[in-house]
Specification:
Layout lengths: L26 E6 L11 E2 L12 E9 L3 E15 L24 E3 L19 E7 L8 E14 L3 E10 L14 E12 L8 E3 L6 E4 L22 E3 L1
Parallel strand pairs: 2-11
Antiparallel strand pairs: 1-3, 3-8, 4-7, 4-9, 5-8, 6-7, 6-12, 9-10, 9-11
């Protein structure tokens, strides 16, 4: 019997302006296991779909480079997209938002921190233990039906230039893989963009776009099979269910 997450009221996330501090080139990253650049971080994941990881989630670490110091950080919002390798449709295994499907309700989850992900020296989380929320949407495009948006913030923390910061951890629990088709199908998971809001940029802040090879990972596929990451299409987030902590 699959457990269900309780759905709450939608939240609104404002669109952010594009830019980076002092014109420097900021960059976003995603990797399995740990922050990009660490020994055990990986851009690909292979799983036997044999039930051996039920209840032991795989972790996606989000991070970004801060090229210049900035005033107090207020929040970080990451928009992530799960998509198949076209022209295949996203398999039932990932249709967690559709009632009656084999893994309905088994949404990926998000938290600002997780054990053994990041460190105070390399890839620290600037907003650990703060308020956070995450929500989902899906597109009419059958190859990319699931989008995930996570936000953390509320405490003002200065950012140090030339440093990599964690932007939180997405956990993917493969529970139910023995009863669901598509676990073995290769998909891409990408950071479409990441919004940083500081006291100086509130209510809008720099938007760091994905698209670099380090901004996406594969599930059941080798590194590099994802065609260039694409920006997530605009959606009406008012129709999206949200989860709060």
């Amino acid at each position: 019997m699959l457990r269900k997450h309780r759905l709450a009221v939608p939240i609104a996330i404002a669109s952010m302006s594009i830019g980076s501090p002092h014109g420097a080139e900021a960059q976003v990253y995603m990797s399995w296991n740990n922050c990009y650049g660490t020994v055990n971080a990986s851009q690909s994941l292979q799983y036997a779909c044999d039930g051996s990881r039920d209840g032991a989630p795989f972790r996606l670490a989000l991070s970004f480079d801060q090229p210049a110091s900035a005033e107090s950080l207020q929040s970080v919002t990451s928009t992530i997209e799960f998509r198949s390798i076209a022209p295949q449709v996203l398999p039932d295994y990932w249709r967690v938002y559709e009632a009656g499907t084999c893994r309905a309700g088994w949404f990926p989850t998000y938290a600002p921190t997780a054990a053994l992900v990041g460190s105070p020296v390399y890839c620290p989380n600037p907003l650990p233990g703060q308020t956070f929320a995450y929500q989902f949407a899906f597109s009419e495009d059958p190859t990319r039906l699931l989008s995930f948006q996570a936000s953390m913030g509320t405490t003002l923390v200065p950012l140090q230039g030339g440093k990599r910061y964690s932007a939180g951890v997405v956990s993917v629990d493969p529970v139910g893989d023995l009863d669901c088709t598509g676990c073995d199908q290769a998909i891409c998971i990408q950071v479409a963009f990441m919004d940083l809001i500081t006291t100086a940029t509130f209510p809008r802040g720099p938007r760091l776009h994905g698209g670099n090879p380090e901004s996406f990972v594969t599930w059941q596929g080798p590194p590099g099979i994802c065609p260039g990451a694409t920006t997530t299409r605009n959606r009406t987030w008012g129709t999206v269910k949200s989860l709060y902590r």
